[in-house]
């Protein structure tokens, strides 16, 4: 009798899980990084609105935006759209979040991840909250497969990261995780982001320069990244530009570009 009762309870839990899985939430995304989760995990008709930067060149899934509206969120707009949930990393101020909660709107908070080992569980967690756990599991598996496709270099190279604004990055940054995943070595004098003046840049020894946001015409207006001596050194040496969507948000899909990046560095 006890076994029968246990089986009935187990079946009921499974039915509830299936029902929840079959009904994805209708959401509004509040910032570009949250946009990526919504676009990757949800059917487009369940995304009521995206952030104004959803089609920006830094947005990994910008090609999926299609006809989905992009709006700067206000309480009036949210109440008119009647979402089940707001999806956010950093978007939306505290007052808006509190007002939305007061009207019964769920808040799905996406955590900032600093490693690929954190990125897989995070996309699975968010997907489960959205009611599409199967989609999250699929994305995590795709990330693991991409990481496994990265060829271990026979001769790892020393890589220096540099941006137009003159900043470099250390091993404890998302950039550090990207370079480490390619099997190459990051050249850095500090663990986090730090300023590297043209003079210091010219004194550093690197086999390859990995450039961040050098494909951004606006960013390239800034010194010291456009200093003639800096540009000359980079142009004469081996260099790669890391696609900006791999840098703008730390998330599972960044792994999809790693096999190609690793080959380009090698």
From TrEMBL:
Residues 1-22 form the signal peptide. Keywords: Signal. PANTHER family: MOLYBDATE-BINDING PROTEIN MOLA, VITAMIN B12-BINDING PROTEIN. This is Iron compound ABC transporter, periplasmic substrate-binding protein. The lineage of its organism: Bacteria, Pseudomonadati, Pseudomonadota, Alphaproteobacteria, Caulobacterales.
